[in-house]
Structure formats: structure tokens, C-alpha cells
Amino acid sequence: MRIDGRKNNEIRKFSFTRNYIKHAKGSVLVEFGDTKVLVCASVEEGKPKWMPKEEKSGWLTAEYSLLPASTNTRCQRERTKLSGRTQEIQRLIGRSLRACIDLEALGERTITIDADVLQADGGTRVASICGGYVALCELIESLIKDGVLNKSPIIEPIGAISAGLYNGEVIVDLCYEEDSHAQADSNIVLTKSGKIIEFQTTAEGIPFSKSQMDEIFTLAKAAIDKIISAY
Fold it and tell me: Name one GO biological process term (predicted).
């Protein structure tokens, strides 16, 4: 039995509260247990300056931050220099969401996904990806309604979940206490059809076996299927 009484394959109670911010074209408060992340999606006309002029497509990028009171001890705001962890998570969110959208169909526009962690209890990056997808869908719906786009450039839904080895057993959706003592740590991002976008799995101590890796994937896919069905 896990710390909070869940089964090994059981994810925490989760929810997506849409239209959470008045001024954002797409916004959602995503909650997985005590982890709460506010995710907003915005769009600007024009593509990034680094993209070739002849390239007629758009871009999607992401920003991520932990609010000072989101953790058990106050964390500093990253005003001038981003930590390696923050940069890694931003890149993960961005490339995960780019995998589900046809950037050429988007046109020469730039979408920014902002994920702000209000309360952290494990799994903030995967919660940000799930919330990012929901916020992105809301933004696209708004662009279609306003006549900016004729149809949705989204290819298929995506979802994400954490998993790992804890006390020698494979579990999904780790809370902070489990994550901080895990023997292996995974972040998995999949499409609805089961294609892999990201499968990050790292041994934190003793190396793990292929059969354990396979079990991590199996439990993660079942969890992601459940999350996607709730969008």
C-alpha cells in the first residue's frame, strides 16, 4: 500500500478547470492530488526571428515556473537566470506540445504555453503538459471562432504521467514523498494512439530491468488513456 493508500496503478484524483483566467484565450487549472498548476495559452502574429523567412509555419514554445510558496520552503523567483531544471522542463513541455500540432497549418504565428505551479507535490511537469494540451485546445477553438483559422491544426490528443520504482515496485503518478525516495524516475508523454513522444526513465540508485521498464510503460499508458478520456 502506498503512502496515500492508492494502488500501484492508481493515479491521484485529477481535474481540469477550464477558462480559469479571464484574459487568456486558453487557460486551465490542472490538479493532480495536491499538485496544482495554472496553464495559459496565448498567441502572437508572426513567427520567431530565428526561423527562415521562406519557412511558412508557426511555432509553439513554453515557459514554466514555480511560484515562491508552491513548495514546503519558499523558492526564489527566477528573475534573471533560469535554473537548469526550469530550462529542461520548459523544453519538455514545448516539444511535447509541438508533437501534437501541425505547425505549418498554424500559419506564421507563435503560441506560448505558460505553466505556473501554484502548489507542488510531485508531477508538476507532466501536469503542465496535460494542462498545456487543454489550454492549447481552448486557444485553437477561440482562433477558429474568430475566423483566424479555418480548422484545427491539432493532430491528436496527448497526455503525460510520472511513474517509477518505489520500494522495488512500479507505481504511477508519484507524489513528492514517493518521488524523492524512488529508485527509478520516469516521465512519459504519449499520443492518444499510443505513440511515444517522451519516455524519460532514470535509475536513481540500483539499475532497473527491462521487464520493469516494460511495466512502467504499461501502467503509464493505462493512466494516460484515462487522463485523455477526461479532457
Answer: rRNA catabolic process
Residue 142 has pLDDT above 90, yes or no: yes
Residue 6 counted as an annotated binding residue: no
* Helix H or strand E segment including 186: strand 184-191
**Residues contacting 174, CB < 8 A, separation 6+:** 122, 123, 162, 163, 164, 166, 182, 185
Which residues, in sequence order, are CB contacts of 183 under 8 Å at separation 6+? 164, 165, 166, 168, 203, 204, 205, 206, 208
Residue of 36, 136, 153 lying closest to 94 (CA atoms):
136
CA 118 to the chain's CA centroid: 15
Burial class (CB in 10 A: 0-12, 13-18, 19+), 208: buried
Q: In a 3-state reduction of DSSP, which class is residue 172?
A: strand
Task: Provide mean pLDDT across the span 75-90.
Answer: 86
pLDDT the model gives residue 72: 81
| Number of C-beta neighbours around residue 214 at 10 A | 11
85 annotated as belonging to a binding site for a ligand: yes
- 2 marked ligand binding residue: no
Question: What would the grid cell of residue 191 be?
Answer: 499520443
Picking from 176, 178, 154, the residue whose alpha carbon sits closest to that of residue 228 is 154
Question: For residues 111 and 100, what is the distance between their CA atoms, to the nearest angstrom?
Answer: 13
**pTM exceeding 0.90:** yes
Q: Check the annotation: does 124 bind a ligand.
A: yes
The single-letter DSSP state of residue 203 is E
